[in-house]
Amino acid sequence: MGKLFFIIFFASLGLNLSAQSLEIEYRVRVNKNSVITTTETRYYLKIKGQVSTYYNTLEDSLSQYIYAPHATTSYRAKAGFLVAKLDDHHSTCILERIYFKDYSSHSVIFNELINGRKLVHIKESYPLFDWKLLPNRDTIILGYPCQRAVAEFRGRTYVACFSPTLYPFGGPWKFEGLPGLILQVQSEDNYFIINPVKITLNANIDTIENPHAGKETLSWEAYVEATKADLQQSLKKMKAMSAAGDDGGIKIVDSIEDMGIGELSFRK
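The structure assignment produced for this chain is given below.
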């Protein structure tokens, strides 16, 4: 009888929590290999019922580049993103990213750029992460007790801290799949770090709509192929402008996710 009560109690707790709304402000840092393009910016997670959005704004479009104090004013480019000049040798694209998760369909839809030129929308299905729970230790984040888990994902190993007392599921970016809300994530190589700075319980959140509704979506595999095809076109242009005997190549070396493309090269 006690066991049955235990199961029903926690099932009811999960239902009650998921009927609430929650907002978390995160500080997100990406330590790029090209140091001047390193960013530290704010993201916001809003979760209500069975849906959530995780997004940044363009308010700190330039100040997020903490090692580029002399970056020039960004200007709006076509296709809904910004372009900023960080110094005489580095320019970058700035995108207002929005991740929409529908937990009832186990999916996430988000916007992304193909090599900084073309805006596309991508849809992925969960589960994406094979989490392994780590031994218990005292981990308190913003006053909430958390458990830890580890997973490998597209070239990096991540340690996440999650709190079952906050919400029965949810998390920033693509992170998902733990029995509680993911509050903090850090890759073991310190390339990608997500820390919460503020939690608002019972937040006044309107109905969360899918901001990508009506947009054509690509699968992750199709996005990778489109990225590779675009790189191959750039490689052809490089080869056409090269002298006989020259060689060259293109390789993606500064991305959160390893797309498995590898180096593309030519010899003329």
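Interim note for the steering committee: The radius of gyration is 21 Å. The helical segments are 2-18, 220-240.
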